[in-house]
Amino acid sequence: MAALGGKVAIVTGGTSGIGARTAELFVAEGARVVVAGRRRTEGEELARRLGTGAVFIRTDVVNEAEVKALVDSTVSRFGRLDCLFNNAGTPGQVQSIADLDIDHFDDLMRVHVRGVALGMKHAAPVMLRQGSGSIINTGSIAGLRASISGHPYSTAKAAIIHLTKCVAAELGEKGIRVNSISPGAIVTGIFAKGAGVADGKADAGLAPLLQRFTEAQPIPRAGIAEDIAQTALFLASDAASFITGHDIVVDGGLIGGRPWSRMVAGRKDLAEALRAATGA
Question: What does pTM read for this prediction?
Fold first, then answer.
């Protein structure tokens, strides 16, 4: 039996990258999926490609009326809501705190933290009536470790991770699970957009990232959207029925430490430098 047979899911930020791949996987595993995002052309094309198991609803997650309408429309169309994947996000600038663009800071907090909070606010009543549901929020290893991304993005992701745990403590008593996923160096267009590449050209920057990210973590390959989509599938499914309040890190071991071979090479270089300096 399909992992999500008979379930209904909303995926925000669903028009590209992690969101799009998750929508594809959820449909393949039997779910009916509402793809939500701001880019109508891409969203409608994805929904057409996925067939009768998917529909697109244009949604800006910072707009409460639109988020409420998204949830209401989903329930009206499909009769229930089993999974909400709060995945919408935007890239952050990397600046010194002395040069912080506070408007940019506010924008990221609105999209990431406000967007997640609104999604949970309006999904919760539906799931409470059902007595079941899974909410999944996209965090980041930048929310767990300093100096991985810029201050605004890192702060927003840290807030999402903690908000996830707070809401999980409340809703778990009612049969609703709430977890977050913290991706590591996952190759998606958001990196190119963060570097100033226009939306239409962002995917062209993925090939060099695949090579660069091969050496970023102990597992010697770049992370891809599939890695996060598979984790979301697990959390959305009944296989994760006893898991709530957790942040699942999917990073190939990146925050655990640098690759062993790089450590050994570094120690060798240091030893050679010491021998050269001392004449040993």
Answer: 0.91
